[in-house]
Fold this sequence. Notes:
The complex is a heterodimer of chains A (295) and B (300). Chain A has 295 residues and is mostly helical. Chain A has helices at residues 21-56, 64-75, 87-120, 122-137, 144-151, 155-179, 183-191, 196-233, 239-248, 252-280, 282-294. Helices cover 78% and strands 0% of the residues of chain A. The radius of gyration of chain A is 24 Å and the shape is globular. A six-stranded mixed β-sheet of chain B has the order 6-7-8-3-9-10, sandwiched between helices. Chain B has a four-stranded antiparallel β-sheet with strand order 2-1-4-5, covered by helices on one side. In chain B, helix 5 crosses helix 6 and helix 8 packs across helix 10.
Amino acid sequence: MSAANGTGAVTPPAAPSGVSVAGVAGRVLRGLAWAGQRLWLLAALLVLWEVLARQAGSLFIPPFSTIVTAFADTWLSDRLVALFLSDQFLADVLPSLARLGAGYGMATVIGVCGGIVLGVWRQAGAFFNPLIRLGMAVPVTMLLPVAIVIFGITSGMNIFLIALGCLWPILVNTYDGIRGLDTTMTTAARSLRLSPRRHFLSVLLPGASPSIVAGMRISVGIGLVLMVISELFAATAGLGFFIVNQQKLFRFPELWSAILLVALLGILLNGIFELAERSVLRWHRAAKAGAGDRR
Amino acid sequence: MTGGDGGHVLEQKGHRLVEVSMTKDPGGTTGSATPILDVRGVTKSYPSRRGDVLAVRGIDFAVRPGEFVSVVGPSGCGKTTLMMCVAGLLPLSGGTLTFRGSPMTGPQDGVAVVFQDYSRSLFPWLTVEKNVALPLRDRKIPRPEIRSRVGQALETVGLGHAAGLHPWQLSGGMQQRVAIARGLAVRPEMLIMDEPFASVDAQTRASLEDLVLRIWAETGTTVLFVTHDIDEAVYLSDRVVVLSQGPSVVVADIPVELPRPRDQIETKQIPLFGALRAQVFNLVMASERRTSLSGPGARD
């Protein structure tokens, strides 16, 4: 492995062509081919849905094109100031996202800090371990009725459930990440006599970061589910609230459009994560690939 | 080359092959004979299901300032354990360590350690430059000085051009040079090296050996060098401490009076080199034979 090429293994080799028409056309064609290879099954299934739904004529399962139309009507607008989003979007999606952000943010802070403390301080880790196992084992959705009683129908209730559900994967992964740090590495760190702050920032946190990020990624999905579910049962605005409302109004294309929106949100959040992972954990992938080269 | 001249005089007084090191006479002949590191009766045992397992037993030796001392022994004899104890990275089960005249209980300022496994002793998430700068951070050293020290350390090991790369973009030998640079950056009084070149190829190894000799000569730092390679120990050192098979004890403390500066070819052609090599080899083999015949796992 040569020094200069170390990064080559991470990013796919870019076409060395300059800005020429042929180059651009080639890139577009390759992009289409790439999309075609990965998305043809999805496209085929959507076409099948369209055909079957049209033939069945069911009120509950409208054709996909109807859902797309409803999606555009419900969630999008032609106003640039609102980023082409509709009032409905601002009224229902923003509160949901705010709850998700608050709950997920709390879970991340508590989970990462707690996981590091438990990982470093063995006695505390052993002491809290049964509690964590118990906490993980309880399905958070079962706490919904209790949370409603305690918090009432407030955003606090949604945030609490999201935070609790997201906490466990982050906490446990952080803990495992710290405990899984290579002993040679921690010994080397000890020999450098770093200040506790430096040790935390430059050794523990980055060393455990692959595991921490894995936990955070699992929790994004959990958070999204808990956001919708808690709103289905108790909320005065939000995506879950919207879905229940549309069901009661028998407006099924709108209902489906909300489901489509949640799916797109999930894809978007995952994509953001992937990008962040690629830049923050570049060393992790490269170091693993490098170790594979040598051994 | 003045590195260990004081020591040579002392050792010529007659200890060639003694059980314990020559610092039995602490009165010494010269002022520089006061050891920078004094290892007295160091014992280390590990708990196991069948009771404590003794790794090293009553190790005695001393290292004088500026000296280059190697510790050799058969593989698995507890060299690494001893090194970890001496570096303050493992608590002792018995005995004392004295560094610069005061008892040593943990990792010490003024001691830098280079580990065998360079791929795991450097931090892959930091660039070469930041790896080397790490031990200098949060120590009230002004930023420009950190930068100049890091640059200097990297230049010394010939990696000035690699500052912005990550360790995993470098070859094994280059990574170990980064680890050496990280040790140098703190300007240590003693550099402890635990089989630093055990996992690099022969050519790289020879050039790294000469690099360490050059650094030792230029900086005047004391070096404690742990290795299983007898040639390497004789080639580099002022003195070779030979350990027995585990639980290891010191079986000999041999002065190496080869002229300096040393040369990979010329030094190894001197008859004394061969003689010393044979002497250390026999001691190591003898201790290995003894254990394999009398030990519980002996065959026949």
